[in-house]
Amino acid sequence: MARVVLLTGGNLGDVPSNMALVLSLISSGIGSIEVVSKISESESWGFESNDIFQNQVLVIDTDLNPYEVLAVTQNIEREFGKIVGELEFNGVGERVYHSREMDIDILFYDDIILDSETLTIPHPRLHLREFVLNPLSEVIGGYIHPKLDMSINDIKDQYERHNL
């Protein structure tokens, strides 16, 4: 049994209903949800939007391997209309982000470090995003990031000190 930590979120449609449905889909498709953070609200990250994002961190016990977890999360995202696997970049090579009904990111899978063409674990930008760090700190604040060798709470504190 492995522990996988996911971030779910969206800013379009009936987000609270979507989040509830996603909890059910994740539970049936990935495994037992052990811990759920409060839903946190944040501005868009990396683009402008009038719609507020709602995000939530889930800690799940699973028998699936990381690639199987990815396949399930991508199938759930497709159910909410996301085009999965196609990244968009602007003229200077920066990734373009959009509003969405549902997005699911794999933040951690046990303590593994994985960097493949299709999957990077831990999530490579989680330490740069307050909307990830706040709910993550709520549910696993003492967890040591396997690549940064710092607790989530320490990463969050460092983020807050450098982004005031």
Could you characterize what this model shows?
The protein has 164 residues and is an alpha+beta fold. It has a single domain (2-124), classed as 2-Layer Sandwich (Alpha-Beta Plaits). It is built from four helices and nine strands, in the order βαβββαβββββαα. The strands form three sheets. Strands 1, 2, 3, 4 and 7 form a five-stranded antiparallel sheet that branches. α1 (15-29) runs antiparallel to α2. The longest helix has 15 residues, at 15-29. The termini are far apart.
- Proportion of residues in β-strands: 25-35%
By CATH's scheme, which homologous superfamily applies? 7,8-Dihydro-6-hydroxymethylpterin-pyrophosphokinase HPPK
Number of separate structural domains:
1
- Distance from N terminus to C terminus (CA atoms, Å) equals 40 Å
Largest sheet: 5 strands, antiparallel
Q: Roughly what percent helix?
A: 25-40%
Main CATH class: Alpha Beta
User: Pairing-aware structural class of the strands and helices?
Assistant: alpha+beta
Write the element-wise H/E pattern from the N-terminal end onward: EHEEEHEEEEEHH
Overall, the morphology is globular
Task: Examine the coordinates and then state which fold CATH places here, giving the name of the CATH topology.
Answer: Alpha-Beta Plaits
Number of helices: 4
Q: What is the count of β-strands?
A: 9
CATH architecture: 2-Layer Sandwich
Name some characteristics of this structure.
alpha+beta, Alpha-Beta Plaits, 164 residues, two-stranded antiparallel ribbon, five-stranded antiparallel sheet
